[in-house]
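[Discussion] Sanity-checking designs against the backbone

I'm trying to build intuition for which residues belong where. Below is a structure token string of 149 positions. I'd appreciate it if someone posts a full sequence so I can compare it with mine line by line.
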């Protein structure tokens, strides 16, 4: 298993930060690389929601199906996908701090096919850079929302 953990301190209340990571219909607004969301369930937010995300990766688009497997409002949300020979288990944890919120993303990549078992540890730095970019976008989005409140 390959684990990547990235944390950002965000100058915004926990409810704004939690909404940014868990409000699936608005993910394209908070994550520039997400270009499309299609729901596979009637449910749009919360535990049990299933959706298909189309994300731009360089010049290509990649489609991934995700399940929301844990959801505790203003605390954490977990999304799991089985894609390209790997189970991608992503946990967003929101922790209020004195003047803002700490957002920690923990991504576990559990390969179940040979090539990803070899490549995932090699690609860990690439994964981390992508997560950092993602969290930097979320930070900007949340701080802009908080300033407009």
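Best answer:
Here's mine. Compare freely.
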């Amino acid at each position: 298993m390959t684990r990547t953990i990235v944390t950002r301190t965000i100058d915004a209340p926990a409810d704004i930060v939690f909404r940014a990571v868990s409000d699936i219909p608005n993910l394209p607004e908070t994550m520039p690389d997400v270009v499309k969301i299609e729901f596979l369930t009637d449910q749009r937010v919360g535990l049990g929601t299933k959706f298909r995300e189309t994300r731009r990766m360089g010049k290509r688009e990649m489609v991934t199906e995700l399940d929301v497997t844990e959801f505790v409002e203003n605390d954490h949300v977990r999304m799991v996908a089985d894609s390209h020979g790997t189970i991608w288990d992503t946990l967003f944890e929101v922790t209020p701090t004195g003047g803002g919120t700490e957002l920690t993303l923990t991504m576990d990549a559990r390969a179940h096919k040979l090539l990803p078992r070899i490549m995932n540890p090699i690609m860990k730095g690439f994964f981390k850079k992508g997560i950092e970019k993602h969290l930097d976008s979320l930070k900007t989005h949340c701080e802009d929302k908080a300033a407009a409140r």
